[in-house]
Automatic annotation (TrEMBL):
PROSITE patterns in the record: PROKAR_LIPOPROTEIN (PS51257)
Protein name, per record: Alkaline phosphatase D family protein
Organism: Flagellimonas marina
EC number: 3.1.3.1
Record SUPFAM superfamilies: Metallo-dependent phosphatases (SSF56300)
Top-level enzyme category: hydrolase
A molecular function GO annotation: alkaline phosphatase activity
Domain PhoD-like phosphatase metallophosphatase residue range list: 43-260
Keyword Hydrolase: yes
Keyword set, alphabetical order: Hydrolase
Amino acid sequence: MRIFYVPLCALVLLSGCKKKENPKDSTFVVAFGSCNMSQEPNPFWDDILAENPDVWIWGGDIVYADTDDVERLRTIYAMQDTVAGYAALKAEVPIIGTWDDHDFGVNDGGSDFAIKAESQQVFLDFMNVPSDSPRRNQEGVYTSHNYETPAGKVKVLILDTRYFRSQLVKDDDPDRRYKPNTANDATVLGETQWKWLQTELKNSDADFHLIMSSIQFLSREHGFETWGNFPNEVEKLENMIVDSKAKAVIILSGDRHISEFSKKTLSGMAYPLIDFTSSGLTHSYFSFSGEPNRYRVGEVISCKSYGTITLDLRNREVDFRIMGDNGVVLQELKQTY
């Protein structure tokens, strides 16, 4: 495993960037990102299209609506479709993904959001989910997508960390927003989604599994939103991944307006669990001055960025890249599975 990074978002072009020449070969390229405002300049859509990805995954906060007005929510989503660069990507590349709080409708929102059912339908409309899809009748936007190459299979598991999520517990510490909710019934995914995820992992014959969680999983110490606010759920997902024996499980996340790699060794698993956070596309945490993350690999990237994951199914190698404008590689992580 090697790590390459450019500190402080320096605009230095790293040579040797692998481009995908043939979508039928042994590689599968994923691009993803989060935290996007259609009214703000987005310098990345042309770069993302140039990567020739097999799929684009929204990691949440597709738009910033923060409203319980359904028609206003619909209008704000519609603005994103008018962005020329995004429209060009959408015309060439499959678009999948999940929501987070601001496109869900309320900052740090969860199961008690009054119009979550109506918001779900607007989200599915934006994602062009057919009117007769089972997703139209289920609670929550979670789903799975399966892809096959001549060299192997890729499964993308899209989680919904909003619809069912229990109450966050405010922290009295002025430097922290939330503290862990240790109640036995506190949940991130809800009972039905948990059962679905267990089945998807346990019964899968895919060679790689990408789990899209809008919020960070491994980075848990910063006091903002994270799976770490629900420690019982963290343990549950780690155990589920190990017990499922699913091959090459990787977590993708967003939300934080920073990008970073986190890695943890789980007992009973032959490879490390990596959580690749990519955020944000149009605005980022430029004033970031540091925060604890015992699982961090490399440095935090606090300028605008998006993520790419190149899966080499023949050699079981993955190239993770945090990308800046004009093909700049801000940080890179390689892992063999």
